[in-house]
Amino acid sequence: MGIFYQILLHIIFPLFALIGVGICLHRLLKLSLSTLSTLTIYVLLPAVCFVNIYKSDISGNLIGQTLLFLLLFNLLLIMISSLLAKVNRFDRQLSSTFKNSFVLSNSGNYGLPVSELVFSSNPAGMAIQIIVSIFQNLLTFTYGFYNSVSAQSSGKDIVWKILKLPVIYALLLAVLLRWMHVDIPDYLWKPIKNTSNAFSAIALITLGAQVAYLKITRISRPIVWIVIGRLVLSPCIAWLVIFGLGLSGTIAQALFIASAFPTSRNSALLALEYDNYPNVASQAVLLTTILSSITVAIVIYLAKILF
């Protein structure tokens, strides 16, 4: 129980304190969400990716195991969400939002800061979460995009959106420099490292600003299933896949924790853009984010015990 209390105090509380700052600032000052989002995606996220991949000793084998887990894990989530949507007889638009909210997790603004706190002395754990975050971005602009605009978007549009993600190039550059054993001079490393250090605070404040005006009008059946799927079923499925693949240590802990993050804000943005029950999507983001303050703490606690 002492360990659980420490997790709540030292990991979950700092996380939600900054989310609270973002909520207050946005309500008081009306922050520019587009500016914050652009800053995070095009500057801070590539910097934190570059620093952690460059510093970590993650091997090709570890990357392969991570990608195999992500493929199996997300395939199972997609199958289960599709089955639940069919059993509950959701219409096509609601099914689209339901499946995106069920499968897509907030591995960037929420997941990376959590991993930064959990694996503060272990760059490999953070590097694994970065791979998860990049995979989630790819999933969003393929599976998530297809769900929302399958009749309106071409394959070319999807590929172009993926190629515009700077974090992919930061990842490739970091891997290349590590492989070539290139030492980055101090005058370049310092600004990159300082930018990376700013990621956690800005990402969480941005997340707070994004949910500042979201409201829960009523808890409908789709939202109940999304909450159960995202915060309960997802870690259970992750544990089964981890056990099946025989993973252990840091990689098992990082992947298990990554499976418990709340619904991605991108699912709400896609629902809003294409008018696929945006109220359900936004309420799912807010409710899973609030409840994750407890469920993520439990998963972190279990990760330390199980692996």
Based on CA atoms alone, the radius of gyration comes out at 19 Å
DSSP strand count: 0
What is the count of DSSP helices, taking H or I runs of 4+ residues?
Answer: 13
Terminal CA distance reads 18 Å
What share of the residues does DSSP label as strand, in percent? Answer: under 5%
- Coarse shape: globular
The class by helix and strand makeup works out as mainly alpha
Sheet of most strands:
none
What's the mean pLDDT score? 85
What is the helix fraction of residues, given as a range? over 70%
- Report low-confidence residues grouped into runs of 5 or more: none
Question: Helix and strand string, N-terminal first?
Answer: HHHHHHHHHHHHH
Task: Describe this structure as you would to a colleague.
- The chain is mainly alpha-helical and 307 residues long.
- 81% of the residues lie in helices and 0% in strands.
- The chain has helices at residues 2-29, 33-55, 60-87, 92-103, 111-118, 123-149, 155-163, 166-179, 186-211, 221-245, 249-258, 265-273, 278-306.
- α2 (33-55) packs parallel to α8.
- The model has no long low-confidence stretch (mean pLDDT 85).
